[in-house]
Amino acid sequence: MASILSIDDPDDPRITVFREVKERDVAGRHGGFIAEGEVVLRVLARGRLHRARSVLVARKRTAALAPILAQFDESVAIYSAEQDVMNAIAGFAIHRGILAFGERAPARSPEALLTAIDGPAIVLALFGVSNHDNIGGIFRNAAAFGVRAVLLDGACCDPLYRKAIRVSVGGALELPFARFGDSDDPLALLARHGFTALALSPSGATPLMRLNRPSRTAVLLGAEGDGLPSRLLAGARTIAIPMAGRFDSLNVATTSGIVLHHLMSSPT
């Protein structure tokens, strides 16, 4: 591990990437992303997909975080600052006292991502999911239930937005993902790689409990309210989660957890 460098001035140019996190993070920064919190830092330290470039921690936390910080090699700059200095840098009270700046893994196409997946597998395909909490929750569930990859359309928000990473408890840093291009046909692409497309809808033809898991399964989820586009529902096998009373839909992240648990528990 590199030496921990002390930061006493919020305007120190060495920590530019951490400045005003709250205001600038939506659009990304310097081609990378911001991660926060101890659990997420542990995931980033493993560095399977995305690499840390620098870490800023509250000085009072350096001793407790030493085992995690020691996992980063000397190419990662590690800084510490008093809590008030760190708050001034971030632009808000950063109670967790941990920020990291990471470099995104090179972008991959859906074709390349699916080509790399052998044997029985579950993937997710998301359409129009623009809420960062939902994206984070979906990635958390996907990591927990063994999903191999996540595909997103252009309307989905960035899984590496700071809040999405935090809600995913680092799942967004562990799962490979790719975006469909404007000219991609998602159903044709999935079929070409042997995946059976299961589209979740309140009006789905097959109740989830009657579903036997296909060997290679793609779970399609749409935005709350609008749901999946009609062209996808028409070309996929539609699945419904039966509910009581007058309720006919669930939060999309909740839906993902229920469906993925069922699939993981079902024999192929």
Question: Quick gist of this model?
Answer:
The protein is α/β, with parallel strands linked by helices and 268 residues long. The chain has 11 helices and 12 strands. The termini are far apart.
Task: Please tell me about this protein's structure.
This protein has 268 residues and is α/β, with parallel strands linked by helices. The chain folds into 2 domains: 4-103, 60s Ribosomal Protein L30, Chain: A; 110-265, SPOUT methyltransferase, trefoil knot domain (Alpha/beta knot, 3-Layer(aba) Sandwich), CATH 3.40.1280.10. The protein contains 11 helices and 12 strands. Helix 6 (132-144) packs parallel to helix 11. The model has no long low-confidence stretch (mean pLDDT 92).
Output the keywords.
60s Ribosomal Protein L30, Chain: A; alpha/beta; five-stranded mixed beta sheet
Sheet with the most strands: spatial strand order: 8-7-6-11-9-12-10
Biggest pleated-sheet summary: 7 strands, parallel
* Number of alpha- plus pi-helical segments: 11
Average pLDDT confidence is 92
First and last CA, distance? 45 Å
Number of strands: 12
Structural class: alpha/beta
Proportion of beta-strand residues: 15-25%
CATH class label of the largest domain? Alpha Beta
Q: Uncertain runs with pLDDT below 50, 5 residues or more?
A: none
- Overall number of domains: 2
Task: Tell me the series of helices and strands, N- to C-terminal.
Answer: EHEHEHEHEHEHEHHEHEEEHEH
CATH architecture of the largest domain: 3-Layer(aba) Sandwich
CATH topology of the largest domain: Alpha/beta knot
Q: Tell me roughly what share of residues is in helical segments.
A: 25-40%
Report the CATH superfamily of the largest domain. Answer: SPOUT methyltransferase, trefoil knot domain
Kindly provide the radius of gyration, computed on alpha-carbon positions and rounded to a whole number of angstroms: 20 Å
What form results from the Cα inertia axes? elongated
